[in-house]
Amino acid sequence: MGKTNFIVMVALIVALGGFLMGFDASVISGVNKFIEIEFGLSKLQLGFAVASLTLTATLAMMVAGPISDQIGRKLVLRYAALLYFISAVGSALAPSFELLVIARMIGGIGVGASLIIAPMYIAEISPPKMRGRMVSFNQLNIVLGISVAFFTNYMILQLGDSDASWAQSLKFGEYNWRWMLGLEALPAILYFFALFIVPKSPRWLAMKGRYDEALAVMIRASDEEEARRIIDSVKESVESDVHEEKLPIRELFKPALRLVLSIGLVVGILQQITGINSVFFYAPMIFEQSGIGTNASFSQAILVGVINLVFTIIAISLIDRLGRKPLLVFGVIGIALSMFALSYGFKQATYTLNSESVSVLPAEVDQSLIAPMLDKTYESDVAFKMALRESLGKETAQVYESELITAAVSMNAWLILISILAFVASFAVSIGPVMWVLFSELFPNWIRGLAISFVGLVNSAVSYLVQQFFPWELENLGSSMTFLIYGLFAAAGLIFIIMKLPETKGKSLEELEDILVKKV
Q: Is domain 3-246+258-347+414-501 in CATH 1.10.8.60, yes or no?
């Protein structure tokens, strides 16, 4: 096997961790509606069912690096594959909300580990001239995993309605959400066994003083002269690291670093607080609010995944040509406008049930109970849903909410779809991938590792809060106000980016340090 083919094969195998991460994170979007009904969840419980994965992923990110320094990158990834498998099976078989959350949290540990270790391993085995492209495989696989999760959710929903005997025997209709979650077990098994043919990281081998083994691995990836030079530089770096003291976190808050830390925190918070994971993790729920029905909401969610994938590829191709700041400015403008358009679209919606629209409701909905609502127009989704709960009772209103909204709503569903797709495109071409590039460039060498860990932790914490409270916001604030808040955050972030963020393209890390770090 040629050296290039070897590197590509190894990178693709390791990047399956990114695929599993994207799949695991987004498959819940199709599950929400069904577990909310089956387990009788409150909106905060539903939010925790989604966000619990991010909670343990954040904790895993903090310890995955040190653990991989002890036992190796490859072994950590194999353990992550096992955790994905256990989570998939446990989630699919969960008899209660509590056990479902536990299974999700187990998967979150795998997510956190693979998010950190997969790109680290790829970077450590790739020759410098191929490193950028190879590491990008992981980001592309995350996006691909998100897209596949939307697609398989839709297919399982369709199979549940199928008359095919094999589909009925597998009970796709009865156990639809369990199939959605359990399907992840297949790529998890593939990942676990595929990792057996991946060598140990040459960087890790060198850290352990196993220089001959490290060199043998590196020679498979590049010519011998370059391999020896790389391993020698790793050896020199390892030996110098031995004498370096660990930096306390208070070093981050020195006046000299105030500007770069402010930029890092604003960009890290902005990436999540504009609502991207509300869309990825609740896409069918959002589309159902526009009255298109359950099946159509799942099919439109597939478009979210496709747009995300396409515009991530565009961003990777443009980031070194156009620069970081132009992409960010353009993208955040798109995010703000999309959210304002979503807010406007839901604000203009009205909800009216009449004798004709209720005639097509399922027979299980007692039409006599909603008779007082007939021909009465509600100006907001919050008011309409509250009236439904008062008329039908909370449980019945929850089960048939989608059908009742479809029967009553008058709004521009195309505006909702286009706005969400524009939002995802704007995110994927800008702050989604650009954030991590900026993090690697903004901070000076001597504190980069600590700084990236800190702002990454803040980013994950905000992601958790957005996922946790989104269902509660929809119920209590309404769709229009929720998206308006996201848009206002984007507008505030845009002003900061224009005023404070320098262009980092084409500048050395030392030049950036001179520009950004105050000399004392």
A: no
